Amino acid sequence: MPISSQPSMAPQLTPAKPLPLFLRLAELLARGIAAGHYQAGERLAPESELSLSLNASVGTVRKALALLESRGLLERKQGSGTYVRGREQDSPPSQTASRNIYEFFRLELESGGGLPSALLIDLKKVRKPAAVPTFGGGASPFCYRLRRLRFLNETPVAVEEIWFDARHREHLRIEDLDEALYHFYETELGFWISRAEDRLKVGRVPDWSPAQFQLAPGQACCKIERKAWSSGGTLEEFSNTWVDTRLAHYVARWS
Amino acid sequence: MPISSQPSMAPQLTPAKPLPLFLRLAELLARGIAAGHYQAGERLAPESELSLSLNASVGTVRKALALLESRGLLERKQGSGTYVRGREQDSPPSQTASRNIYEFFRLELESGGGLPSALLIDLKKVRKPAAVPTFGGGASPFCYRLRRLRFLNETPVAVEEIWFDARHREHLRIEDLDEALYHFYETELGFWISRAEDRLKVGRVPDWSPAQFQLAPGQACCKIERKAWSSGGTLEEFSNTWVDTRLAHYVARWS
DNA sequence: AGGAATTTGTGCGTATGTATC
DNA sequence: AGATACATACGCACAAATTCC
Known about the structure:
Chain A is α+β, with helices and mostly antiparallel strands. Chain A folds into two domains: 21-89, Winged helix-like DNA-binding domain superfamily/Winged helix DNA-binding domain (Arc Repressor Mutant, subunit A), CATH 1.10.10; 104-250, 3-Layer(aba) Sandwich (Chorismate lyase). The first copy, chain A, has helices at 21-34, 47-53, 58-70, 181-189, and strands at residues 14-15, 74-77, 81-84, 107-109, 116-127, 142-152, 155-165, 193-204, 220-230, 235-243, 248-254. In chain A, strands 5-6-7-10-9-8 form a six-stranded antiparallel beta sheet. In chain A, a hairpin with a 2-residue loop joins strand 6 (142-152) and strand 7. In chain A, helix 1 (21-34) packs across helix 3 (58-70). Chains A and B meet through strand 1, helix 1, strand 8, strand 9 and strand 11 of A and helix 4, strand 4, strand 7, strand 8 and strand 10 of B. The structure holds a DNA duplex.
């Protein structure tokens, strides 16, 4: 650390040693694939175009593409192109033995774990909001909007708002619903959630939040936006969850 | 099948289409190793000599050698040479082949994806804070504290503070660090992160946050607390990340 | 059917960076 | 410090497979 003769000032930002170009390119493409910028089976731009758009030589682009092919992310066919490989391991129906009911419920108490449960605030059949992306294959113009208060071991930790397609049921009453919603989808509506994507933001507690929820409406809190797909690959559910992070946290474990 | 004008005669012997040169070279070397022409640990001739003796370009020789290295037959060390590997196969995850460098970096731009990079704000060797759980097996009472500004495609999206055990290095300078920290752990410190756990809360931007970070100190934002373990199961790293959720989000995908 | 255009595969040569000895 | 050897990167030429007209 150089000793500056100048008066102490804002910390100097030093660039770290960058990764090799071909690795950065591979990383960029891999993250684009994970983010869904490319559909499964879609063809990438040819090497020559990628070379121009990514500002690297064809050879370097080739090295990045070859790396991703060796990882199984891409498939390269001579004379044809480079294609994005789908996730071809879509598991068969979830036996209750094989998978946890609340496997996709990512909230935990500070102490870890906790048993999820829910109280129903509101159930309403509504026209699909335009803001939400294409839903359930677009079969029905309607969807159900569900509002719930969620608990972990009797303590209210979140409120949530869920939309799911109405094509599976013409009518739906509160009594029909199961506390474990994904289990309800599977046993009553005939599809099951096999994939979900959560985006976490800072949001504000909605005004319909009940008094039981310790965080007052308008308060800043952690907001989870979720999209959930059935095994067929169609988007089945969209939801927002507002979490009281004094009591529980979103937990993600990676390996 | 061309019709010959000559009288029918013995079937014409046509040379089969040869394999690509780099494959034939790999085969040649692999068979040489199997036949015991080379001892385990022995150094091969340098690329330039192989290029001459095998009558192929350096690039082609390189491709063959890289193939054999990926198969575990050879080990290539920059500045040293290419060595024949024995039967014992204690290979680290072979950074480039196995997984994404930034596999555990869960931030994405609103549009999805983006290439991660980092600027270094500060690096300091400190006593382990009591608040942090047992660290690196408790071998050293010290750890390094690293502060960085993180980017996705040139836009600053987060600041982070990272602690990792000092037992791997007595001294550490800024220049030693790699931009991809987990990659640095693997290549320089001799362990690799195989598991991580993130807890998401609402926090406030720390006061040491540089001006480049668009969110002012004290502002409410999404805070990520991470613990990361090495393959041996020891906690190696603890970090906090404060995200400007107007620009990027924590994204988790489940299946 | 055939031929042109496109796209990846193979191979060559070179220059420069970086680690090792 | 200098030489050696592998790593990265660029650019080009041609071959082979595919696609399209």
